[in-house]
Structure formats: C-alpha cells, structure tokens
Write a structure and sequence with these properties.
The chain contains 16 helices and 20 strands. It is an alpha+beta fold. The strands form five sheets. The protein has an eight-stranded mixed sheet, sandwiched between helices. It has a five-stranded mixed barrel with strand order 1-2-3-5-4. The chain is elongated and about 90 Å long.
Length: 537
C-alpha cells in the first residue's frame, strides 16, 4: 500500500471516529434533557408499513370511486399544473376528511431536511414508507430533535396516511418518538453491504441493508411451517431427542466431542437423529419426525456447514416406496405453497417438481452415464480393476459396493438436474438398511437428487437385530482399520430392536439444502442466519 493510500485510509478512519463521537454526544444531550430513548420500554405499533399502504389504497378506491383524472389536453404547462393541483387538493380534502390513522415503528433509512418540513423513510419488517415531518404538526421542540437524528435511529411514528403530489403513499406525522439511538454507521445506501464475509458475520446489518437476504429467511421460516403442516396432515408427531450422546450413530461422519462435568463423562454431539427416533417406533408411536440441529466435524464449503438442520421421519408399516410417495408429494406441496408454482428456477435452470420424479437404480444410472454394468462384476478385485481403467480413485479396504458408490459420484451426480430417485444402493454403504429380498447385495434405499444435489436419503429400515449386530461388527472393524466415519455398536439400540420394531420406512432431509433450492440461493451460508465462521482473533 502506497504512502498516499495509507494517509487516505487514516483520514477516513478519523472521519468515521468523529462521526461516531458526534452520535454519542447527541445521545448524551438527549439523556441530559430527560429524553433518553433507552428508557422507553414499549411502543404501541398498530400497523406495519405495507398494512398502511394497503389500507389507504382500499380506502382511496372506495372514497374516490368514479372520479376521473382531469384532462389537460390543449392546456399550456402552467394551466395544466393548476388543473392537476386543484384536482389533487380536492382528492386530499375528501381523503383527509376520513383519515386512516396509524402508528408504525421502524428504522430510519433516509432523511431529507427542508426548513420547516422534512421527509424520511421508515423501514420495518414488511417494507418501507415515506414519512412527512412538519414543524407545525409535531411541534418546534420535537422537530428540532428530529433534525438532529441520524440514519439508523429507530422511531415510532403516529400520523395519518396520504398520497403526495408525486403519487407516493406516505404518512403525515403528528408525533415522532425516538425509540433507539443508533451509535454505529450503517453501510452507504447505494452500495449496501456487499462484502460477503461481513454479511455472514454481521447478519443483523445484512438484514437491514439487503431486502433479498431478509426475504430468504422469511421464506425459510415458511418452508419449515409448511413441512409441519404437511406432516400434520398425515398424522405425524413431532418429537425431540438428545443432542449430547455417548455413541454418535446413524450416519457416516466424524463427531464433535465434549465432556459432561457433572457426570465426568466424555460425550459427543449427535451426527443424525435416526437411532432415537427408531426407538420411538419400537415404543409404538408409529409416525414420528424431528427437525433439529446436527453436528459433523467436517469441512466447510458452499453446500456444507459443520452444524446444520436435519429432518428425519419414520413411519411404521411402510417401506422405501412409501417414503418415495411421501417425498414427491411433500416437495410438490412445498413448491406450490412457498413458491407459488411446481416449476422453480435455480441459477437460471428451470426445475419441474410437477412431473412424476424419474426413478433409476444406482446400477442403471452408472450403466446410463458411465457405460459400466456392475451387475456383471463378480468380485472386489474385478471392481478395482475397472476403477483403475476409469481413473476412479479408491482405497485398498474398499469393496465392490464402495466402488459402485464412487462410480456413481464420479459419473452420475452431475447429470441429475431434474428430480430423480436413485434406488437400491450397495449393502456395503448402507449399514442400517434392509436387504432387497431379490438381491441381498443391495438394499432398499433411495436418495433423491435435484440440481445434482442429494436432497434426502431413505430406507426400508433394518429391523432384524441379528443382522444389525453383524453390520455393527463390520463398522467396528472399519473403525479399527482407520475409518474415522465408521459407526460403532450401540447396545441399547440393539436391545430396542430385540424387543421388536415393525417394518418401517425412514428418511432424512437436509433442510438447509432444501431452502437453498427453493430460494435460489448459491451457498449454504446464504440460508443460515449465523453460519460457522473462523474467529477473527
């Protein structure tokens, strides 16, 4: 950095520090005058900005029904101005005689002071509205205080709604109450908050400055609400299960570890919701689901965050076919209720959730996209030889089943843009799933792919405790061979299976990825209010 740039940066910092100092001095003056905004505990907010606009528009339609715009044809500029002015004054007289009185509250985002009258913009949860602030209407002292206010201050505004000569629906303030003094400076309006790192670290500023960001999180809340509505319509029961566990099972992932001081015991943060929910199926609850945070001690990228929101559900007396029907119906329902159409767009590509979802076995998908038929491959050695031919990297411990999965990831996933169920995975990569009666080397499992992403993972759940014990033993062996993500034998879960679990279909959905898809968001951090970030210090 040049000496000149250094000096410019130093000058800017001094300017900012001076502005911050002035804001604190303004607060001190208000407090000395007995007008401390931080002493106010509540405000009577009767409407949001959008409510005020909608009410006024409806009122205007009713009161001015049949009234035509005056013709200014053939008039010169001055005459036309007088005619339009007279019409505006008549309309104002009619409307002001039957006023819509409102009390709104929000953050001041813009201010223009003009002698005895000023304009400002107030932003709340539902939008922004212009406020006309006149000395004659709010009083000399209050107007003097308002003139000293800053962008970012939070105001309560009482007044009546009107339309300006330029056609903008606004509030004519009769009372302005400073509810909170902003001591920091918001990013400059026209450039907004564009630095992504700051957006994620200071989400509160991002939500103030970027309406698109706020809409994503409002939509996220709606998605969760509609998932619950959909499942309630199918008699599912929402439950909560432990976050701290002694044995983190149900997925292939490395857990976070911590320590219970009171019990003097090491525990892990859960990596899935599965094993406790299955215990509830054993207990007779039949249809259960949980939406909760899970934690995986893994990398961070555009689609992965170490803590994320997972939904798992389990339904007794159905299988993975039942889970496919439920999933297809739920995704279609969410697109309709949240996005308004079963056709959505992601990154400019149209995705049709209205058509029946394609169904392919994993073997058929590899045959289609890589030209290899693994049903004709008999041994692990043959599979490894084919992997070498196709430049697919594998580990020595990998079996044919593992290599099938590697081929799928390498050659197939990138082609699965439209909704596609990939079914019948190898037994080697599915330790908690029922074998297919017609082919015991495969399991009754599917993953739904949309936009090349895995959106969910479902099974006909394994309910044979003897088979489950054997698979846990294999996982223990994998762990001993150096697999950090292998599961471990869970004796209490095996005990539950021995008591007896009915045939059950189960499924897990990554909620964050679903929100990314339905909000056209490019990174998982854009749909997490407070994503994991490396500490600045």
């Amino acid at each position: 950095m040049s000496q000149e740039q250094n000096q410019t940066q130093k000058n800017q910092e001094q300017d900012v520090n001076q502005l911050l100092k002035v804001r604190r001095e303004k607060l001190a003056a208000l407090q000395a005058a007995g007008k401390d905004p931080f002493q106010i505990t509540k405000y009577d907010q009767t409407h949001h900005t959008s409510d005020a606009k909608e009410l006024y528009t409806a009122h205007e339609t009713e009161l001015l029904a049949g009234r035509k715009q005056p013709s200014v044809e053939g008039l010169d500029e001055q005459q036309a101005k007088e005619v339009l002015n007279e019409d505006y004054n008549e309309r104002r007289t009619i409307m002001d005689a039957s006023p819509i009185n409102v009390s709104i509250a929000g953050r001041m985002m813009f201010k223009r002071v003009m002698g005895k009258a000023s304009f400002c913009n107030i932003k709340d949860l539902k939008g922004t509205i212009q406020v006309y602030v006149a000395k004659d209407a709010i009083g000399e002292e209050a107007y003097a205080d308002f003139k000293k206010s800053d962008i970012g201050d939070i105001f309560g505004v009482k007044g009546y709604v009107f339309r300006t000569k330029t056609g903008e629906i606004s509030i004519h303030a009769v009372e302005m109450t400073l509810l909170s003094k902003s001591l920091q400076i918001l990013p400059e309006k026209f450039h907004g908050l564009t630095d992504t790192d700051t957006r994620y670290r200071q989400r509160y500023v991002d939500l103030i400055m970027n309406d698109e960001s706020k809409e994503v999180f409002i939509k996220r809340s709606k998605i969760l609400k509609e998932i619950r509505n959909f499942l309630a319509g199918r008699d599912f029961m929402e439950v909560e299960t432990p976050t701290l566990v002694s044995n983190a099972g149900g997925a292939a992932a490395r857990p976070f570890e911590t320590h219970y001081n009171a019990l003097n015991e090491d525990v892990k943060l859960r990596i899935s919701l599965e094993l406790y929910l299955k215990r509830l199926i054993v207990g007779g609850l039949e249809r259960v689901y949980e939406i909760g945070r899970v934690y995986r001690n893994e990398g961070v990228d555009t689609r992965h965050n170490p803590e994320f929101t997972l939904m798992e559900l389990y339904q007794a007396y159905t299988d993975y076919e039942g889970m496919m029907e439920l999933t297809e119906s739920m995704f279609r329902y969410l697109a309709e209720t949240v996005c308004g159409s079963t056709k959505i767009s992601y990154n400019g590509v149209e995705i049709d959730l209205g058509k029946p979802f394609e169904r392919l076995t994993m073997i058929d998908a590899i045959k289609k996209y890589a030209g290899v038929d693994f049903d004709a491959v008999a041994t692990d050695e043959e599979a490894k030889a084919i992997a070498k031919e196709h430049h697919v990297e594998y580990e020595e411990r990998h079996t044919k089943g593992d290599i099938v999965n590697l081929f799928f990831e390498e050659f197939c996933e990138e082609n699965l843009v439209q909704p596609t169920f990939i079914m019948d995975h190898p037994l080697a990569i599915s330790p908690l799933t029922k074998k297919k009666p017609s082919d015991p080397s495969k399991v009754e499992r599917f993953e739904l792919f949309i936009n090349t992403w895995e959106m969910c993972n479902a099974y006909s759940e394994l309910n044979d405790p003897i088979d489950q014990r054997e698979r846990f033993a294999q996982q223990d062996a994998n762990a001993a061979a150096g697999d950090d993500e292998a599961e471990h034998t869970d004796e209490d879960f095996l005990n539950a299976l021995e008591i007896g679990m009915p045939p059950t279909g189960g499924i897990g959905y990554g909620i964050d990825r679903l929100v990314m898809l339905l909000t056209d968001s490019q990174a998982i951090r854009d749909v997490l209010l407070f994503p994991t970030m490396k500490s600045l210090n």
